[in-house]
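pinning this so it doesn't scroll away 📌
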Amino acid sequence: MANRLRMTVDEFIQTVYTGIVHKLYNLILEYLLDGRMGSSNRKLSNDAYRLINMAFHNPYDDIRIMAFTPLPIIGIGAPTHIFLNQVAEALGTTAKLTTHAGVANAIGAITGSIVGEETVLVKPRYDNTGITSYGCHGSSVYFETEDYDEALEWAENTAAKYARDRAEAMGASNITVEINQSKNIYQDGEIELLMETVIIAKAIGNQAIVSTTV
């Protein structure tokens, strides 16, 4: 990959590491801003993301944007000692890394819930008369119909099935399935167009703990 990007291996590694730190930085700010800018349960605006990215890179000489939080960041998982100090420094705070932080996720995975997830997108097809049909796009299946209710029913059933199958494949038991629906609407003055309906199914189950005696 370094050769393809015309970089040295060290430059490529640094680019990847910086990208991970940037992603963590963005996710933390996105979480902190959610609900404080009238954006609860919605994505931040493109302008907000531009400001967040500028605050991380600060590429200009004549303006600087800073984003700080007084909250410390607690790290769990094996890579936290590599990345979290840099994220905390960028946010003007401190990172808390305990002795056994590297195995905290592993313990949580053993004792916690297993989640299988599937997303199905229902996309309308338009011509000059309006909507002609609906295409339903799953991760590995596709269905098309002219009836919106039929499309939604297929999307929900398919999302639930694939989510359950994934949870079962990971060893989950006592599975329950949650289905959420949201719509992306384009609005311009009096024009309102359905762009897509998003169906997300989450199958949540318990980790099966097997004990054997020799």
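📌 and the second one:
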Amino acid sequence: MAKLSNLLVMIELLKNGRKYSLDELSERLEVSKRTVREYKLFLEEAGIYIDTIMGPFGGYVLRQEINLPKVNLGKKDIDVLKALDLNEEDKEKIANIIDKITVDILDSDNEEKNLVVDDKVLDTYNKLSRALKYHKKVRITYYNLQHGESVRIIYPLALYKFQNEWWVSSYWEDKDDMRQFHLVRISNVQVLDEKFDPNEINIKF
């Protein structure tokens, strides 16, 4: 499995509050124990902190609530998609349908649905979702607390919800590095025509 997929699986495993030993995670993810430790460090750099319980019965525990999105289309949208030939001429139609998606978040405790209600964040989320689906590069205007606003070219690889706010995990072209961008700090999003290969990014990192 690619690194990004493994990170998402690791979050899914840990978010139920259960303790997983290093051996269990290594076996589930089919990677070495050293790689599991590297994943833990990567997640903590992204603000997802995993507790380590020491001792012979120790392991990793995630005590934060991390919700990963489940994206669903309405019945009418699905019918339209089925009717399309999915050729080049249909791309704009498909993009318009994707822009209408409703993001459902499945709460791990009570399975109640939470919606993205902020119009600006939803618009940003929908555009990034489109870029994710078609592996397209994105130009964003992003506000940084230290340096103010700047324009960045990113390759979006995953959208996730952390502490009830949306983030996008991306490869940042200028820095040649993986970064996490807070959606509320993105003031402008432009999905570019240029595509990228997510497998190359996953292998690289």
